[in-house]
Every structure is written in C-alpha cells, then in structure tokens.
Amino acid sequence: MEAFTFRKSSYSNPFDECVEVATNVPNTVAVRDSKDPEGRILRFTPAAWADFQGALCELPT
After folding, report:
1. Which end of the chain offers a freer environment for a tag, N or C, measured as fewer CB atoms within 10 Å?
2. pLDDT tens column, 4-54
C-alpha cells in the first residue's frame, strides 16, 4: 500500500473540520477526513484534482 504523507491546508485550525491532502505518490492525489485519519481515502488523478479545484474557484462567494 502507498505511504501517503498528508498535509492540512494552511487555512485550517485544530478545531474545525477539514480534509487532508497527499501528493507524494506519483499520479495520485489522496484525500482523507482529518477527523478520521484511519478511515477511507479518496484517490484522484492529478488532472481530476485540478478540475475539482478549478470548479471550486468558479463557485460564487
């Protein structure tokens, strides 16, 4: 199994819900719930992750 190195957003704080992202495995972006680090991990291709981030940036604020 891959050894992901997860990191939290610099916008996160220890009291709020957030996700953690790992990009250290080639061709994979892994995402997990920071409250459940032993839980499920979602895996994306870098292209799919970039599309997701782009879609978030297009959302109205």
Report:
1. C
2. 999 987 777 767 778 899 999 999 999 998 888 899 999 999 999 999 989
The answer to whether the beta carbons of residues 22 and 37 sit under 8 Å apart is no
How many helices and strands (H and E) does the chain possess?
1, 4
What pTM was computed for the model? 0.80
Read off the tokens for 11: 């916008």
Could you tell me which of 17, 43, 46, 47 has the C-alpha nearest to residue 31? 43
User: Residue written as tokens 């992202």?
Assistant: 21
Per residue in 20-31, pLDDT tens? Answer: 999 999 999 999
In the block, residue with structure tokens 């916008």? 11
The residue type of 49 is W
